[in-house]
Amino acid sequence: MTPPSARSRHAESDGALASGLVVAAHGRHVMVETPEGRRVHCQTRGKKSELVVGDRVRWLPTGDGGVIESMDPRSNLLFRQDDWRTKSFAANLDQLLVLVAPDPVFSESQLTRALIAAQAAGIPTVIGLNKVDLPSTPVARERLAPYVAMGIRVIELALKQDPEGALATLRPLFAGRTTLVLGPSGMGKSTLINLVVPQAAAQVGEISQALHTGRHTTTSTSWYWLDEARSGALIDSPGFQEFGLRQIAPEDLAGLMPDFASALGDCKFHNCSHRHEPGCSVRDAMARGEISPTRQRIYSELFDELSQKRW
Fold this sequence. Notes:
Layout: H1 6-13, E1 18-26, E2 29-33, E3 39-44, E4 56-62, E5 65-71, E6 77-81, E7 86-91, E8 95-100, H2 108-121, E9 125-129, H3 137-149, E10 153-156, H4 163-174, E11 178-182, H5 189-196, H6 200-210, E12 222-225, E13 233-236, H7 258-261, H8 281-287, H9 293-307
Parallel strand pairs: 3-5, 8-9, 8-11, 9-10, 11-13
Antiparallel strand pairs: 1-2, 1-4, 2-3, 4-5, 6-7, 12-13
């Protein structure tokens, strides 16, 4: 955001600026929650806003609303970027939960992209395998085995068939943390949100009405507190068809994929692409079966994509 104006600096010196948490955002309109739990409809200055759910802000009360004057520094920001635009999910996260399922069959490329973006942002990630009651679960487990081997935690859920068991797994995972939940359509994300936050639909409706966004907010990122002490929170983000990684340089890609990163450091060439050069320690790891063929393919496709000339 732009630096505070002279007016806001004056207000801050008088102690008039209030602190708050962004729990919903739509264009220049944001819902800010005060430390006491009151929610205020605020607007940002200027024509554009960079604010996302999870941002901490300073705002100036104006009547029954407010104006955002500044944003506190972020600890992290999860976003995706293609050739045309950048889409931010949320800021100041403690962890990311990526939800997948045996049916419909999840895209390993999309999963990898989300993991790379989280790794680049310094956000720990957990993979949630939902619908483990389905007969195709063993195939999904086999596909996720390389991720378990590289140290990524995978939890198993049956959100519809065994909601109590799912809650027993999820509650300690979410306790005291701010968690963003990502997942393509059909993986059970809505079921998870409604199970963990029974009042979710009502909260979305209230925010939608307050921000005058009609039905739009139901497809926007939403913040939900998980306990009265407001120590843990869940952020629900809309599904996505594409997950661009144009913010990643191709030469940084291997270091953001744990199975590749563990094999780095002993290549013959300092600018090794790990695809065809002789004396490559990563290709040696591939030959030993330490990097799966699917992961090799995904790396190669991403390297080509990120190496394309950017106009």
